[in-house]
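Final report, section 2: Outcomes. Of the targets proposed, Protein PsiE is the one most frequently requested by collaborating groups, and we therefore present its record in full.
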Amino acid sequence: MLEIILPEKWKTISNGLQKLLNLSLVLLGGMLVFFLFRELIYIFMDACTGNHNVHDILGKVLVFFLYFAFISMIVTYFSESHHFPLSYLLYIGITAGVRYIIVNNANPLGNFWLSIVILLLVISYIMLTPKGKRLKDTRRRIQ
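The predicted structure is given below as tokens.
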């Protein structure tokens, strides 16, 4: 891999900004964990009080999984040497689109266009991910 040779002051600035980014992501991860557990408490409260509004419950469950996806993306960022995989961004876009369709089902034409966008995101994921990696990921999830 080619390395760009930078003057020492630029390396210091770059390292300082990287540390600031890391600290910000750790703080953001902590906040997301708090909101994740708060959403879990809301889901349990709905289950205990007998909330029968399916769209409300599914909306909360999908928000829970969005928090979970963001937290796992931050963990992956640190475990993959400060790199966000594009597939995670596609997962979040797909999940957010599905959540919006489930929760806001009053606009059929808008939901149709959003489903087209979700289809494009899925196609993008298939095009970006090599076939062998997709199969390996699927086998790992099944086991």
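The chain has one domain: 13-138.
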